[in-house]
Design a protein that fits this description.
By secondary structure, this protein is mainly alpha-helical. The protein has 18 helices and no strands. Among the domains are: 62 residues; 90 residues. Helices cover 61% and strands 0% of the residues.
């Protein structure tokens, strides 16, 4: 079966070499629709100059899919990629922030734009972002007051104790958020996290008392002497520090 002109054009865009693509864009640019243009971004011979020629078409420039493909392609001229980032959906911004093929300025611009949008997003959207976003976005998202968002953030493999500890030291963090972290089986067993939870006056008492027996003697003494903390917690820490409870380390 013979190929139609549209199929042939799409195949050339996907498989042509640099010289062929240059000739094609010079002579048939007006024939390329957004669907065909997306094939060009899968061509290994694509260059920044060719991307610039493609985007000289106003019709293609008006297509979200084409702008998105251009923003996420490592050979797109930086000035063009940065121009397209503000108009991308949050899911595409997440992908850009994680794509190590892209220039750091492009990734950072995507992170900043996504961070700016966070307050206006629904809880479900923020949960989806929290599970997969880059550390640059997590540093902003960790301050979200919604326990469900923080629970999702704790599932992100890119989350580190270094990102989490400033939240645990905050005097304005919601007790319900601290309770979520204290109950998390992955993070509550990490010693710096456990100690930080016991040190925060806003950690629910039952959660702090649960973590307290696993602290070192010197840290128990620190908790016992911290007048910001609830009296039952300080007394229990003092008792444990003196050996009146579980075996100390």
């Amino acid at each position: 079966m013979e190929e139609g002109p549209g199929v042939e054009l799409t195949r050339f865009l996907r498989e042509g070499n640099e010289e062929e693509l240059l000739e094609l864009l010079a002579s048939r640019l007006e024939e390329i629709d957004p669907s065909a243009a997306r094939q060009l971004f899968r061509n290994p011979f694509l260059t920044g100059a060719l991307i610039g020629r493609l985007l000289a078409s106003r019709a293609l420039l008006s297509s979200y899919e084409v702008r998105m493909e251009a923003a996420r392609h490592p050979r797109t001229p930086q000035i063009l990629a940065l121009r397209f980032i503000p108009g991308l959906y949050w899911a595409d911004l997440v992908r850009l922030g994680l794509d190590m093929r892209l220039h750091p300025l492009v990734r950072r611009a995507a992170e900043l734009r996504l961070t700016e949008r966070l307050p206006a997003l629904a809880v479900g959207e923020k949960m989806a972002i929290a599970r997969s976003a880059s550390p640059g976005v997590l540093s902003a998202l960790r301050h979200d007051p919604t326990p469900r968002v923080i629970a999702a953030l704790l599932e992100n493999p890119r989350l580190t104790a270094g990102l989490l500890l400033p939240l645990l030291a905050s005097e304005s963090v919601a007790p319900a958020v601290l309770a979520v972290i204290a109950s998390n089986p992955k993070w509550s067993v990490q010693y710096p996290v456990r100690f930080a939870l016991c040190q925060n006056p806003r950690t629910p008492l039952d959660k702090a008392l649960m973590l307290l027996p696993l602290l070192k003697r010197s840290d128990l003494e620190s908790v016992a002497s911290d007048l910001r903390l609830k009296l039952p917690l300080r007394r229990r820490a003092q008792l444990l520090a003196r050996g009146g409870g579980e075996l100390r380390i």
